[in-house]
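Box 3.1 A note on notation
Throughout this textbook, protein chains are presented in two layers. The first layer is the amino acid sequence; the second is a token string describing backbone geometry. Keep the layers aligned when reading.
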Amino acid sequence: MSATADPRRLSLQQIAEARHSAAFVGRAAELDLFRANFDVPPQDARHRFVFHVHGHAGVGKTSLVRQWGQAAEARGALVAWVEETAESVPEVLASLAAQFAGRRRPLKALDRLLGVHQRALHAAAREAGDGEPSPGALAAAQAGLIAAGTVPVVGALAGGVDPAAVARGAGGLRAAFGGRARQQEEARLLAEPVRALTPVFVTELARVADTVPWIVLFCDTYEQTAPLLDGWLTELLTPRRHGELPANLVLVLAGRRRLDPVRWAAHTRLIEEVGLAPFTEPESRRLLNAQGVVDEDVVREVLRLSGGLPVLVSTLAANPVAAGDASATAVERFLSGEEDPDRRAAALACALPRRLDADLVAVAVPEGLPGPHDWLIELPFVAGRHSGRARYHEVVRAPMLRLQRLASPQTWCAAHDRLADAFAARRDAAAEGGDPDRLWTEEGWREAALDALYHRLCAHPRAALPDALRAGTDACHQDPVAARHWARTLAEAGEDTDSAVLRDWGRDLLAALTDQEPRATAAFGLLLTRAGLDDTGRAAVLVARGWDRFRAVEFDAALADHGRALALDPRSARAYQGRAVTLRAMGAHERALADLDRAEALAPDWAWAVRERGETYRRMGRAREALAALDRAHALDPADPLTLGSRGLVRQRLGKPEAALDDFDRAIALWPEYHWALVRRAHLRSVRGDPAGALADLDRAAELAPRAAGIAGERGDVYRNAGRYEEAVTQYGQALALDPEYAWAHGSRALAYEGLGRRGEALADLDRALEIAPEYEWARQQRERIAADEGRDRTAG
């Protein structure tokens, strides 16, 4: 066999990586330091568990950590990377899980929980804009809390009792938006995703660590992700906080700044700080020699202009020029290898957009000049050239932006306005057919909207700021990930325009919108106190903050915010609707209806407000009025599964099981992950004598919410209705293992015990149900009945 490797066994990317590695110059000491760490046992005090590479932009941090990644893989390490675009810890964990799975080391338990989290977010997104969840009150927007057992599925809903009231009686209001819900997996994943996911990640990491020599996790461009990850990583390293990390784990961070000395103070003995300085002259010469630049005059000129920054040495080496023009700027040198003045102008113009594709090149390049996209993305300072997200390296882009902004302010503004218009067109196209109340959760729309915002701010920093801040109200309201994107856009526009106002806004908003604090409360406060909004704008912020407080079960504060919004803008239908939902949650149904009257008068075709009227009637036990309102809401928005789910329950109560079943079928067809509707359909199928269909629905619901206590409880009902009492007792027991304070499961298990002739255990369960929820009248009636039967039997005996 030939000693030469068969080229068919290597991918193009592998060959390119090998060539890049062969061309790597310098940093020998840093490479040796990292490699040597694998030879030091973790128990040895010299071993380091965290490497932190820091240095100015362009100093070669990314090149070094990529070499470290190859060195780790050569030692048999399982290597994974955290991308700079990550916007939440769950997103980071999902990326790591995908990379581990790609290396045949799946994190199965984490993958399952991440799936539940994504479904929970999807469910919450359907309700995040304007309204308390329609079917089953808090169920859908909190991703199925009723089906999870926080609110009794049958006992509450079948009797027309307000689920919020039942939840309050069952150990406090446990099923509210964003609040804690004991033992309820999906609720906790929404309220505290980091705390819910991290212990599972740590456990899975330890399991995989037993199968590989080392695990090395890399976080490059850490200055971007530090606000997101600093708190999480330091907690991860803290003993007994989230579990025991494996000793063969190494974490590599690379960013411009040093680590936060306060956050990382407790872990300094674990960390190796690796500060990178620019290349020395011998290192720069070796890099130039490796790229074929040997003319001494050219070498000296590159050394003078690059300052030893590896990225500039490489860029200037690709465009060598004759020496002697000491007045030449770095920007001119970047483009000096191109003699065509039109191409040089095009390359300069294309520094303006934050990302590039052929269409954007055509917009960025001034009229009459060619826009050679294919040539442009092959320039040495363009990163991600074949990923569809090409961009200039920031070390090169920054002076290009500064040159254009200072050289011709009018041309600068006109170019940014053109780009803003182009992105606005993309944004509007992405909005077609979408729900305007959920657009910030759609990545395509969000990216286009933020790029349009960025370019408008670059063109007119002060004039465009009010619109940018108003846009942030919706972003904070709809999606915390979107809100962080928005804040970062303001910060970047501030840097690129040298606008202190934009820089300050971006900095303060990013500080307020951290992944450790999923609520946008602090950001809303900034908008209210500093944004200088008009009355309508302030009212919109107050409505958004009112919903934020409602989800946190701060009902009085939510009511106050909606009231203040109406004082500023009496024609705000959203403020009336928000106040109505809050009043309803507080049990003030008539006042809620009065506010819904006002909302509908202002926006008669707004389906969400009409649906909330139907929900309010349903909870008041006014089923026929509820049906009329939900019929009207469905006519206004036939694709809303929540309206169909709510109407299905109303029709069931009105003795229309076929129509109810049709509504549940259609709701589930529109939203296959709507497990509240699956549970309700299962109950209906069970009482209609179709236990097989009911169990099939519950199996599917359990796949969507594996730890949902309510699903096990409903399965217990199916078995009890079929006379399979032992199996019913087992299922109720599983539900109570998940949620010991699940009052309805105690009450239902009592009937299964009664069916087995075990009245003593039945009475004990009913006593426990009433201890948890003293207002649980059905349980009280059942206890009196069973106790009376027991007494009669004793008397007869």
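Confidence is low (pLDDT under 50) at residues 1-8, 13-23, 127-183, 322-328. The chain is about 60% helix and 5% strand.
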